[in-house]
């Protein structure tokens, strides 16, 4: 089930909210758990068993972490983290491992391994990370244990963040499961955030999908195909994922929870470092807390710090998908983060002006997105070749047919929102009267998005695949 569907909007969400409101406060974790399991099992009931297995295994292991001390405590933590990562590794990376091994065997003249492709359960990467954060937070003592397994199961399966994040650390929600407030004001703010997110997804992300698909499936893309498709994909990915995050945060508010922000105007960043502090904030925070710092962080000198940073971004790339393109994409970003750190350390120059820095950062981001979107490394190489103008300049017919005036208008509207919204928000801080202006337009825009759903084909969120 996806948020941008009539089943969710007109059936599941109203019934769930009514049931939740009628449930006594002490039993609301049960309502969250049962509703979230129904939400998850709607499309693929067979995947429900894996989610339940992760919940039970992690809860029991967490109990042993709390009950142990010294080396035994660390052993139980290691077992819990390793067990979860083993599940993630099998379901997400086994296909990649066998494919890579078969490529090597082909070169050496050996027969390929026979292998049945494994289907990646939706949301596995996210709820495995939630489980790991629980174990580590218990070991560190940064969070109290949940009252019972129902509270923990409700945390892991909470449907607003279950299938595509944000990635939540357990200690941020542990106290909220014990006590949280429900007010009409909080519910209204949550509903507004949900409406904003749905409008971003349906009106600004989904219309760009045909253009992006045409550009990235062209047999011999031209320079215009590659650049226009990559810019469109950069906008599509932002409005798709940021839209989902808005909806998740809004739904959580409607249930009394406060989720951290996941996007902080990343396309206005003036450095790659700032970009990664604003894009998919919950993932960046998770990688810093549970990968970068355990590797040593910045405590062992500049060289080791740079290596830790590079390795962390490589792990982040691999987390996104079982494909060498994602590994290279992580290394691409890690290399620029290290380069910025080295140059700042060596020269200490003041940051360049925004008119220069923002386009430079966006160029790096767009070029990296080629790896993120391409089917394989060879395909990415073909797109880069096209970008360099080696395949001609003009749009190819299959791409040209998708470049409609309406789609170009959506791209322009997307750019206006990306760069206009932060400016408007800064002015609204100085003139509070401006804050109410967008609210008057929100309901008709939301209704347009809901009506548009009827004319669209099924369009799952892009991050479902990760």
UniProtKB/TrEMBL annotation:
Protein keywords: Acyltransferase, Cell membrane, Membrane, Transferase, Transmembrane, Transmembrane helix
Positions of transmembrane segments: 37-62, 74-93, 113-136, 148-168, 237-257, 309-332, 352-372, 408-425, 437-459
Keyword Cytoplasm: no
Subcellular localization(s) per the UniProt record: Cell membrane
Chief localization: membrane
Record's bilayer topology term: Multi-pass membrane protein
Family: Belongs to the membrane-bound acyltransferase family.
Protein name as catalogued: Alginate O-acetylase AlgI
Organism: Deinococcus knuensis
Gene: algI
């Amino acid at each position: 089930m996806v948020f941008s569907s009539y089943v969710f909007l007109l059936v599941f969400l109203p019934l769930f909210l009514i049931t939740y409101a009628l449930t006594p406060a002490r039993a609301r974790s049960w309502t969250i758990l049962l509703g979230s399991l129904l939400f998850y099992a709607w499309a693929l009931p067979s995947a429900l068993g894996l989610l339940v297995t992760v919940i039970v295994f992690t809860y029991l292991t967490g109990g042993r972490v709390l009950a142990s001390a010294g080396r035994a405590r660390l052993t139980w933590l290691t077992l819990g983290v390793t067990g979860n990562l083993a599940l993630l590794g099998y379901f997400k990376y086994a296909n990649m491992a066998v494919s890579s091994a078969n490529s090597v065997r082909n070169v050496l003249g050996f027969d390929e391994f026979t292998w049945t492709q494994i289907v990646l359960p939706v949301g596995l990467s996210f709820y495995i990370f939630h489980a790991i954060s629980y174990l580590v937070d218990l070991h560190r003592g940064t969070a109290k244990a949940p009252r019972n397994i129902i509270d923990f199961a409700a945390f892991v399966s909470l449907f607003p963040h279950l299938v595509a994040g944000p990635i939540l650390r357990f200690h941020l929600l542990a106290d909220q499961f014990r006590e949280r407030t429900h007010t009409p004001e909080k519910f209204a703010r949550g509903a507004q955030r949900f409406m904003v997110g749905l409008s971003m997804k349906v009106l600004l992300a989904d219309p760009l999908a045909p253009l992006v698909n045409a550009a990235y499936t062209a047999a011999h893309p031209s320079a215009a195909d590659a650049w226009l498709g990559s810019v469109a994909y950069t906008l599509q990915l932002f409005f798709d994922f940021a839209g989902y995050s808005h909806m998740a945060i809004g739904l959580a508010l409607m249930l009394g929870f406060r989720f951290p922000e996941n996007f902080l105007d990343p396309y206005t960043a003036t450095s790659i470092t700032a970009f990664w502090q604003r894009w998919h904030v919950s993932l960046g925070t998770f990688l810093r807390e549970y990968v970068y710092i355990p590797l040593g962080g910045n405590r062992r000198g500049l060289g080791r710090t740079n290596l830790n940073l590079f390795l962390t971004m490589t792990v982040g790339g691999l987390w996104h998908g079982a494909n060498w393109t994602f590994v290279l994409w992580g290394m691409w970003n890690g290399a620029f983060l290290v380069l910025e750190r080295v140059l700042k350390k060596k020269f200490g120059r003041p940051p360049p002006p925004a008119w220069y820095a923002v386009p430079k950062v966006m160029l790096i981001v767009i070029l990296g997105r080629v790896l993120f979107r391409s089917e394989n490394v060879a395909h990415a190489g073909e797109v880069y070749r096209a970008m360099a103008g080696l395949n001609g300049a003009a749009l190819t017919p299959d791409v040209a047919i998708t470049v409609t005036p309406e789609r170009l208008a959506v791209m322009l509207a997307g750019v206006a929102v990306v760069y206009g919204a932060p400016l408007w928000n800064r002015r609204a801080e100085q003139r509070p009267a401006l804050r109410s202006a967008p609210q008057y337009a929100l309901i008709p825009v939301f209704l347009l998005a809901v009506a548009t759903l009827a004319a669209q084909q099924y369009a799952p969120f892009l991050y479902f695949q990760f």
